[in-house]
Specification:
The complex is a heterodimer of chains A (221) and B (511).
Chain A (H helix, E strand, L loop, with lengths): L1 H27 L3 H26 L2 H27 L13 H19 L13 H18 L3 H23 L4 H29 L13
Helix pairs in contact in A: 1-2, 1-5, 2-3, 2-6, 3-7, 4-5, 5-6, 6-7
Chain B lengths: L1 H19 L3 H29 L1 E4 L4 E4 H30 L8 H20 L3 H19 L5 H32 L12 H7 L5 H19 L7 H8 L2 H29 L2 H24 L4 H22 L1 H33 L10 H4 L1 H14 L6 H16 L3 H8 L8 H31 L17 H16 L3 H14 L3
Antiparallel strand pairs in B: 1-2
Chain lengths: 221, 511
């Protein structure tokens, strides 16, 4: 049992590291559809992580959450986003507020910041998934950064979804999943939010002939 | 516990019916019926809570105490006023072609879902369920804000969706951390987010985790309250949304989000020194007050004017909660109510003006007193109430907050001095005087700015082509009632309401 749990712990660390890696890949990627693919990949890794935690801790409700991740975040949401992208005339990020190398450096800094913030509270967590909390916070911060650094509505949406993935990792790893009713509610909200943002993106495209959010400057003081 | 079921089922049922009904008259009837049921149920709940202190029901899912009942009361009052106002307002929008007749039922559906989400956020026992409901309010209102489908409203809606979703996600991280802290203390993990479970053991939760959780939750829900610096979506959304929606956003949603912060703060205060949460709240409050006062001065759009005034008043309430103590907390809660009443009235009045003048520019609106004498009076009353002038109840609550601030000071100040992280060279008394002067100067600035703009709109001669004379509609009824309430509450606080406020204050003040 000791051996299994130590291997399990290492596997979970590996998965968390992979999740972080996909974040960096998203930050470095300019093509919108590739960003969506990377998001699907990240969600698939998240699905494996959650299933692993569920198996090792024998808590059945995490299986449900993992299954929902598989269905909603790996299959449904990427499909919706692909549909949205098909409708656009510009399918890549043209001008970024922060160029890719600088963006990657900043993300590296954010990871350090996340570990710095989480350091005092890490020892309180369950042994199996201790380090994942800091990584989860890092993913949240990188998601936030992506939303600020990008201009296309779709990449901002991907940033939001990455942020949600970080939250899910945090909830699963640090606390072995939140109560089921909360978990279900969160999934529902994320799904609806994506659909709404997708519809919005289409309307922006129709109204402004672009989804570059830098053009949203009619309203100001 | 039929009343509890009614408050949830009424908006749910009304929302479902709105999807299948298409006739405008019936949509309004359903709306009014469900609001009537909601308000009646709330009266019953208030009586029960006042008698028993708190109610837990439906397998621990629902928890109501004086604080949440008070919030529920605000939802009911403003919601009913909005429903009455919508009767003429929405029909006119359809008649003018701003809203396609076929989309009217969608508007009502979203409106009911918005209401439902706010009710659930208020009565939920679990902080997690509360989070889900507050995110649901974002989703329901996004399309309501952009219901006119112009380019401007799309822009406002997108900003609102993105900023609030991100803010709310940060709050979720805070909720996760709260749950994380409870795992070591509670045996039954499935209940670990319930307020009823967390409160009794709150002093044993890990303070480090709680501090981090509170910061995330404050930033997250603070975005929905519209506290500076997370406020940038608010003026845009308030300008673009239809008047009844803005009244709900300003009157109720801000209050519900503030309530969510207060709920978590109750737990945090048991484990962490009071100065931590109080200091943070007061800091954001002062920042909001000062920033809003400045923007009120330079405003040339009357809807934005009232939007910034919302930021100002939520800042004032936050200062009240931050300073804490019985006086500050009572003032803060009372201020939430007064602001909800005055602000929904202000937006009803500006909705009427917008319908007549077809512009939101202050410079292009003149002579409302001639064109719409009663609306002009409503605008003046709400403006005076929002400036917290004496015959109105906001004066009383603002006075309570200033008194609390002057006598107790902001709790974070001494903390910063003693920890040595920030050297506070000023004496305690001096910092108090400085804070009170900042408060008063900002209040005077926004008072001057608000009244200057409003009087400019009210007097003068209406531009060519504007119809003169008030056109009476059912929408004037809520305006008159709200005006009566604003004046009445300052002289006389009805017994049940006063009891509710005092009990809610006791809950919030940790001995």
């Amino acid at each position: 049992m000791q051996g299994l749990s130590s291997i399990g712990s290492q596997l979970i660390d590996l998965c968390s590291a992979l999740l972080l890696l996909t974040c960096f890949a998203i930050v470095a990627q300019r093509r919108l559809s590739a960003c969506v693919d990377l998001f699907a990949l990240q969600s698939a890794v998240l699905f494996v992580t959650a299933a692993l935690v569920a198996y090792l801790t024998k808590s059945h409700h995490i299986y449900i959450a993992a299954g929902l991740t598989g269905v909603i975040k790996v299959i449904v949401i990427p499909r919706v986003l692909k549909k949205v992208i098909d409708h656009l005339n510009v399918k890549r990020e043209l001008v970024m507020h922060v160029n890719v190398p600088t963006g990657l450096l900043i993300c590296g800094g954010l990871v350090m910041l996340a570990f710095f913030i989480a350091q005092p509270i890490i020892p309180l967590g369950p042994l199996l998934t201790r380090d994942s909390l800091a990584i989860a916070l890092a993913i949240v911060l990188i998601g936030l950064f992506t939303m600020i650094a990008r201009q296309q509505a779709v990449s901002q949406l991907v940033g939001f979804l990455v942020l949600e993935n970080g939250l899910f990792l945090g909830a699963t790893a640090a606390t072995y999943g939140m109560p089921l009713v909360v978990e279900l509610g969160v999934f529902f909200d994320v799904l609806i939010a994506t659909l709404i943002a997708g519809i919005y993106t289409n309307r922006l495209q129709d109204a402004f002939n672009s989804v570059d959010t830098d053009q949203l400057t009619i309203l100001k003081e | 516990m039929i009343a509890l079921v009614v408050v949830v089922v009424a908006p749910l049922l009304a929302g479902g019916l709105s999807l299948v009904v298409h006739r405008s008259a019936w949509l309004h009837r359903i709306n009014l019926a469900s609001m009537g049921a909601l308000v009646t149920a709330e009266v019953v709940i208030t009586q029960i809570v006042l008698r028993t202190g708190s109610v837990t029901a439906l397998d621990q899912l629902v928890y109501l105490d004086a604080l949440s009942t008070f919030i529920l009361f605000i939802i009911g009052v403003v919601g009913l006023a909005c429903s009455l106002y919508m009767r003429s307002y929405m029909d006119e929008q359809v008649a003018r072609g701003m809203i396609a007749p076929g989309r009217l039922n969608l508007f009502f559906f979203l409106f009911h879902m918005f209401l439902l989400a706010m009710v659930v956020a208020t009565i939920a026992n679990s902080v997690g369920v509360q989070w889900v409901a507050i995110e649901a309010t974002t989703l329901a209102t996004t399309f309501l804000i952009a219901f006119w489908r112009r380019r401007e409203s799309l822009e406002a809606g997108w900003k609102y969706l993105i900023l609030c979703s991100v803010g709310i996600s940060l709050a979720l991280f805070g909720v996760v951390l709260l749950y994380y802290s409870s795992l070591h203390v509670l045996s039954d993990a499935g209940q670990g987010l319930n307020v009823t479970e967390l409160l009794p053991v709150a002093d044993r939760l890990n303070p480090q985790v709680l501090k981090l959780a509170f910061i995330f939750i404050l930033v997250g829900y603070g975005t929905k309250v519209g506290l500076v610096p997370m406020h940038s979506w608010l003026p845009d959304a308030y300008t673009e949304a239809p008047a009844p929606v803005v009244a709900m956003l300003a009157g109720v949603l801000e209050v519900v989000a503030a309530y969510a912060i207060l709920r978590v703060r109750m737990i945090v205060d048991h484990a962490v020194p009071f100065a931590f949460a109080g200091g943070l709240l007061a800091l954001l409050g002062v920042a909001s007050l000062v920033t809003a006062a400045f923007f009120i001065l330079i405003q040339h759009n009357y809807k934005r004017l009232f939007a910034y005034s919302s930021i100002e008043h939520m800042g004032i309430a936050m200062i009240g909660f931050g300073v804490g103590g019985p006086l500050g907390t009572f003032g803060g809660l009372f201020h939430l109510l007064n602001h909800a009443l005055a602000k929904s009235m202000a937006f009803f009045a500006s909705g009427n003006i917008h319908r007549r003048f077809h512009t939101v520019e202050i410079g292009k609106v003149q002579g409302v007193a001639m064109a719409q004498p009663w609306t002009a009076m409503a605008l003046m009353i709400s403006g005076l109430a929002l400036s917290a002038l004496p015959p109105f109840s906001a004066f009383a609550s603002e006075l309570q907050i200033v008194t609390a601030l002057a006598s107790q000071g902001v709790p974070g100040m001494e903390l910063a001095g003693t920890t040595g992280m920030v050297t506070v060279a000023l004496s305690d008394q001096f910092s108090r005087i400085a804070l009170v002067s900042v408060f008063l100067v900002s209040a005077v600035l926004s008072f001057g700015g608000l009244l200057y703009r409003i009087t400019g709109m009210v007097w003068g001669i209406p531009p060519e082509g504007i119809v003169r004379g008030e056109i009476w509609t059912l929408g004037h009824l809520p305006i008159i009632l709200l005006a009566g309430a604003l004046v009445g509450l300052s002289m006389f606080l009805p017994q049940p309401l006063q009891q509710l406020l005092i009990q809610a204050t006791t809950i919030l003040v940790v001995q």
